[in-house]
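User: Is it possible to get a 3D structure for a protein together with its bound compound? The compound here is molybdenum atom. I've pasted both below.
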Amino acid sequence: MLGLGVAGVAAAPLLQRGVEAVAKKDPTGLSGVLPAGGGFRYYSVTASVPHKGERDYRLKVDGLVERPAAYTLAELRAEPQTRLVRDVQCVTGWRVPDTPFEGVRLARLLDAAGVRPAARAVRFTCFDGAYSESLTLEQARRKDVLVALRMQDKPLGHAHGGPARLYVAPMYFYKSAKWLSGITLTDEVRPGYWEERGYDVDAWVGRSNGRDDAPTV
Ligand SMILES: Nc1nc2c(c(=O)[nH]1)N[C@H]1C(S)=C(S)[C@@H](COP(=O)(O)O)O[C@H]1N2
Ligand SMILES: [Mo]
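Assistant: Yes, that's possible. Here is the predicted structure of the complex:
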């Protein structure tokens, strides 16, 4: 997996013109190698993703909760916002230092929903219809895990998973599910898209990125 990713990045200049066509043929997303502004690559495991905005975006919170909810963007913006500046690290090798993300702490949304005692994990689903992610409940409650509405001090653009994505600051960027549409409390961790394909569920980048930060429980 890592080998393929590095090869893909190295081949980027050759692929630039044809990258869209290539991406459509590559369900792994490893062809998302078009260098983007600020050192980011845009990754998507699907060839196209619908646009959602003010009118039709909803973030559902359900599963093992007392009060299921569906947030509009305006409602998410009305919550207290937290800004974090950390390094972004993809497992295929690229890294973008000091990237600001801003949004609502996931712990806040979990508390508002009233997590039932049987819940042990959180599953995240996306309106691309394919990607998913997961965290243990303890990980999900950390202060450095956000539902991000802004990135690089701008509203989150569609290519980066807008209007809202998960942002798991202390872990590899594949944990930060783009186009986030569902937060489901479950009784055990259900492996996400890449985790079913061999990536670790616990994707800590390292202590320097805040691993020893206390959870907010
Ligand atoms: N829905 C969705 N989220 C996703 C992915 C994806 O393919 N689909 N790729 C993941 C991976 S592997 C990385 S490195 C980052 C890339 O985010 P970016 O496209 O904003 O750079 O998103 C993560 N979240
Ligand atoms: Mo990644």
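The pocket of MTE (ligand 1) is lined by residues 29, 40-45, 90, 126, 128, 131, 160-161, 173-174, 176-179 (CB under 6 Å). The chain has two domains: 1-36, 50-197.
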